[in-house]
Amino acid sequence: MEERDAVVVAGYRLPKYSVLMSVYEKELPENLNQSLESMLKQTYPPSDFVLVCDGKLTNALDVIVKSFQNEYKDIFRIVRIDENVGAGKAVNKGIKACRYEYIVRMDSDDVSLRGRCLKEMLMFAMDKKLDIVGSYVEEFDDLTDKTLTLKKVPLMHDEIMNYSRRRNPFNRQTVAFRKSKALEIGGYSDLKLCEDYDFAVRMLAGGAKGQNIPEVLVRYRVSESTPEIRRSWRLTKGFVAVRWKLFTEGYIGLRDFFPPCFLQLILFILPMRFTRWFYRKFLRDTKITPPTAEVLGREQK
Asked: Which GO terms describe its molecular function (predicted)?
């Protein structure tokens, strides 16, 4: 399939789109390679790919980047930043560089299933009022590739609005959005952590219409350090900071501010085994239904 060919699915003409990814020196080359490949070999491939290098990369990472640039020279573009500025600022530079109205975000260590972008662009084609789209995400073990859990999110706009007062209503690894709407609300903030949650809320507060696809479209890599990161003081401070920002801006009230912050503090204080148990028991689905499993198998072939 040629990138520039018009693609019609179920009577809808799919819009062209840009992929936006940022990477920094601590990423593993093999993870970056797999992530880039998963996006560039979509069943409906991108017409534009912007990779933001947030600071100087290692030689191994640069080799990966240059190899993809040579192979996909017509669409693959690199935006380099001399010093590491953080995810929010790096992504903002990338948003401005993207050529198309629809932007698909991608992390540099996750894996998109081959039909992800086709399905997300089909959503935009079917509903011209949509501004932000996401999906379910599958968490998998970095060492064994074994599926661990399924993270679901609310599907329709009203549910998404309600959920956003307590948690991010989108799996950040799966998000696609309108460039014009993102620029209208000022892009991502300078928050060091939870900038994706803040971005989603500001999009919704700014009038954006959102929807999630009830299907796994991205595989999220989980390593041995993931539970420790989830309960770390750094993440706890970042989570409380974004909650406080939403409270002072009037998006949430005290009833929405305190319970999530209290829970995050409990996760920080209690032993690691509790954090593991809690995420699997209350925030994740450990059972992937047969239809989802079937989709996963089909997409990864």
From this structure: glycosyltransferase activity
Assign 300 a pLDDT band (cuts: 50, 70, 90): very low
Alpha helices by DSSP H, listed for 249-289, are 254-269, 272-278
Apex 194 CA angle, 190 and 196, nearest 5:
80
Cβ atoms 95, 184 nearer than 8 A = no
Above 60 in pLDDT, residue 298? no
Residue 216 CA: distances (Å) to CA of 22, 110, 138, 245: 22, 13, 6, 31
| Contact yes or no for 292/299 (Cβ under 8 A) | no
CA distance 297 to 113: 10
Helical axes 59-71 vs 29-40, angle rounded to 10°? 20
Quick one: pLDDT band at residue 228, thresholds 50, 70, 90?
Answer: low
Report, as an integer, the average pLDDT of 211-221: 96
> For residues 139 and 59, what is the distance between their CA atoms, to the nearest angstrom?
29
Hey, what CATH topology would domain 1-111 get?
Spore Coat Polysaccharide Biosynthesis Protein SpsA; Chain A (3.90.550)
3-class DSSP string for 6-37: CCEECCEECCCEEEEEEECCCCCHHHHHHHHH
User: How far is the C-alpha of 268 from the C-alpha of 276, rounded, in Å?
Assistant: 12
Q: How far apart are the first and last CA of the chain?
A: 17
Q: Where are the alpha helices (DSSP H) in the chain?
A: 29-40, 59-71, 87-97, 116-126, 157-163, 179-184, 195-205, 226-230, 233-248, 254-269, 272-278, 290-299
